[in-house]
Specification:
This protein is α/β, with parallel strands linked by helices and 294 residues long. 44% of the residues lie in helices and 13% in strands. Among the domains are: 75 residues, Glutaredoxin (3-Layer(aba) Sandwich), CATH 3.40.30; 119 residues, Glutaredoxin.
Length: 294
């Protein structure tokens, strides 16, 4: 019973006309004898100095019900105990005290109506929140497609794709140098490398760009040695590394493994790191630029 008794005491600790107490009869035999205590625990309620036996339930709900029915607990802040009122509560209490009966009844109705309206707002907001949660799940599902090697089209998409993880970016030969067949072969190999990376210790994002489309970025990253070229970068760690091996699945997998183990040399992402906006590849061969005759 002790946990429920302690809980009862905490509930009514600020109630001015209710006191929850206990007596150790091994140390106060006179008190216990005076009130006829013969077994333990014995529960009694005192009202206006007169005791009465309590033989009801010994759980919190039963004890609380006895206090509410027998002792008429009043709020800590009341007309009889204004000194227990916080300043804000005291102002409201005294404002009500100064009202006429009719004005107080009108004020009570006004506040009750306001409470009802606020509760309805809570219901409406919970409904809206539920609908938003459902929408959120649909939005998430829109990006739940199997991950693929994404073309680098702008910086915002790149940062979203690489958020919270390492990204591998392959700079492929220009379409006029490789045509669709060559590019598709490179993309197929990257897709295989992406699939192979799934068994690694960390998730890696894969992207590709056409060599020359990001000229300033390629210069900043030191990719003047030709295409295809591969880098790995992590925006959170602000570091990048350049793949120096051959361009195939096993070599890229080894590069990523070395990165994860801290065995690949890294450098700070350049301050002038900037991705230019480009158009998506249409999947077709490139058309040579026709030169105008002089």
């Amino acid at each position: 019973m002790q946990p429920d008794w302690d809980k009862l005491g905490k509930l009514f600790i600020d109630t001015p006309n209710v006191f929850i107490g206990d007596v150790d009869c091994t140390k106060a035999e006179g008190v216990c004898g005076e009130y006829g205590v013969r077994g333990y625990p014995s529960l009694k309620t005192f009202k206006n100095g007169k005791p009465s036996e309590y033989n009801g339930a010994r759980d919190f709900a039963g004890l609380k019900r006895e206090v509410e029915q027998k002792l008429d607990p009043r709020p800590a802040c009341s007309l009889e105990s204004k000194d227990a009122c916080p300043a804000k509560d005291l102002a409201i209490l005294e404002e009500s005290e100064a009202m006429s009966k009719a004005d107080r009844v009108a004020k009570i109705k006004e506040v009750e109506a306001d409470i009802k309206a606020k509760k309805q707002q809570v219901v409406d907001l919970e409904k809206e929140a539920k609908e938003l949660s459902a929408n959120l799940e649909l939005i998430k599902l829109g990006g739940a497609k199997a991950e693929k090697v994404e073309q680098l089209l702008n910086e915002a998409d790149m940062r979203a794709h690489c958020d919270g993880r390492t990204c591998l970016v392959a700079f492929l030969p220009h379409i006029l140098d490789d045509q669709a067949a060559g590019r598709n072969a490179h993309l197929k190999m990257l897709a295989q490398a992406l699939k192979a990376s799934k068994g690694g210790p960390a998730e890696v994002g894969f992207m590709w760009s056409q060599g020359g489309d990001q000229f300033e970025l390629e210069e900043a990253l030191g990719l003047q040695f030709g295409f295809p070229a591969v880098i790995a970068l992590n925006f959170k760690k602000e570091r990048f590394g350049v793949h120096r091996g051959i361009f195939d699945k096993d070599s890229i997998k080894q590069f990523l493994t070395s990165l994860m183990r801290g065995g690949a040399p890294l450098a700070p992402i350049p301050a002038n790191f900037k991705v230019s906006k480009t158009d998506p590849w249409d999947g077709k061969d490139g058309k040579p630029i026709e030169e105008e005759e002089l």
